[in-house]
Amino acid sequence: MNLLAVDEASVASRPGTASPGFARVSAVALCVAFAGLSCGARAETISGALAKAYGFSPDLGQQRAATRAADEGVPKATAGFRPTVTATGTSG
Question: Which of 5, 18, 58, 62 could form a disulfide with 22 if both were Cys (CB 3.0 to 4.6 A apart)?
């Protein structure tokens, strides 16, 4: 039994229908798409992919360490722009 068989005469006689070749290609593409979905393909989350990349890439680890070192200097650099409070008092 051929599931992709198309009666070319009946398709050609209907106006506005696709050609038999197109119908075969569409059916084959549909079968391939469903076969690809059923083979256990799984998606990975972005956070999971990043965790794997950070864990297995020494270059990324080195760049992350350099970024952390630069981030430690930010509070010191912005401290001069923060308001200061001075208080004086007398007791008596």
Answer: 18
